[in-house]
Amino acid sequence: MISRIAMCALMGAALFSSACAKEAEQTSQIPTADSVLETTAQGTDAFAAPDSAWRTPSQDELLYITTNKGLIVVELVPEFAPKHVTQIKALARKEFYDLIVFHRVIDGFMNQTGDPTGTGTGDSDLPDIPGEFTFRRGDDMPVALINRRPVDSRNPNAGIVDVGFYKSFPVATKPISDAGWGLGGDTDGKVEAWGLHCKGVTSMARSQNPNSGNSQFFLMRGTAGWLDKQYSVWGNTVHGREHLESFAVGTAGEDAGFVPDQMETVRLGSDLPKSEQLNIQVLKTDGPHYRRFIATQKQADGNYPDICEIVIPTRVKK
């Protein structure tokens, strides 16, 4: 059986490798803060903003991954990959992921898990999922643009694309101004976009078959732009980011002495007792307080860093 690794071959050359105004770069007047957050879950410096500046994700869209290193909470994004989110929810509700190890962990890259055999060759008994590598968005999915980057950092001829945040999710998108022009035969009033494989993002593992996602997934512990548009992004870490690089590095069956860490339980927030639910809040990516935050990210030369170096603040509201 082909191993369902996070990418078809993990190392080196083997890797497979109006509306417009709303999405202008955020550069308006910077206001002052008037409240203080209780806890910053992303590991960024504490960011002060009033309650109205934060959104509270539904507990049904929060995946609580309790590991032997600590709790990681992932916000699910069905707008990007609805079939994958449905599968993850179904497996969590079956308690499928309990006690499954991180069988392949590569430093600076990703933590892979979700195989009940712990070998990289196993899956659940649910059907495989077709790839959801890109999605289409319209005015109902506004993106706060930051800058532009190459579509593929390894291919200088691949072109340039806009990048920014949808909610707290780093994305690349074609200009919303292209919507409705029927470019490429599309006349749905939407444009193509895709999630970026930045640190904290969760994505589905698969074999060389692009439609073979099942139960294995990986949490990014670094940035891997070559995975964009090749793997299905379905979530982003909003709590416990500090644990992403704490898991033992190695590959089961290949590295002598490798003792993998494990997920102890995986539950949807809506399935937990109220006493165990965290009131996680994420800074809204519109309005003056987001613009104040994003202004702090500018470098000395006045430019923003790569989008994967920017982490949208979160907090646990007491």
Protein architecture, described:
Helix content is 8%, strand content 25%. The chain is mainly β. The protein has a single domain (33-316), classed as Cyclophilin-like (Cyclophilin). It has a nine-stranded antiparallel sheet with strand order 14-4-5-12-11-13-3-2-15, with helices on one face. Strands 6-10-9-8-7 form a five-stranded antiparallel sheet, with no helix packed on it. A three-stranded antiparallel sheet has the order 1-16-17, with no helix packed on it. It is globular. The N and C termini lie far apart (48 Å). Mean pLDDT is 86; it is low at 6-22 and 24-45.
- CATH homologous superfamily heading: Cyclophilin-like
Write down the CATH topology.
Cyclophilin
Number of extended strands = 17
- Count every helix, treating DSSP H or I runs of 4 or more residues as helices: 3
Major pleated sheet = 9 strands, antiparallel
What is the structural class? mainly beta
Helix content: under 10%
CATH class: Mainly Beta
Percent strand equals 15-25%
Low-confidence stretches: 6-22, 24-45
The total tally of domains equals: 1
Give the overall silhouette.
globular
The value of Rg in angstroms is 19 Å
CATH architecture: Beta Barrel
Helix-strand pattern, N to C?
HEEEHEEEEEEEEEEEEEHE
Mean pLDDT: 86
Give the terminus-to-terminus CA distance. 48 Å
* Sheet with the most strands: spatial strand order: 14-4-5-12-11-13-3-2-15
Topology:
Blueprint: H1 19-22, E1 54-55, E2 62-67, E3 70-76, H2 82-93, E4 104-106, E5 110-113, E6 135-137, E7 144-150, E8 160-166, E9 169-173, E10 191-195, E11 201-204, E12 217-220, E13 233-239, E14 250-251, E15 263-268, E16 280-283, H3 288-295, E17 314-316
Antiparallel strand pairs: 1-16, 2-3, 2-15, 3-13, 4-5, 4-14, 5-12, 6-10, 7-8, 8-9, 9-10, 11-12, 11-13, 16-17
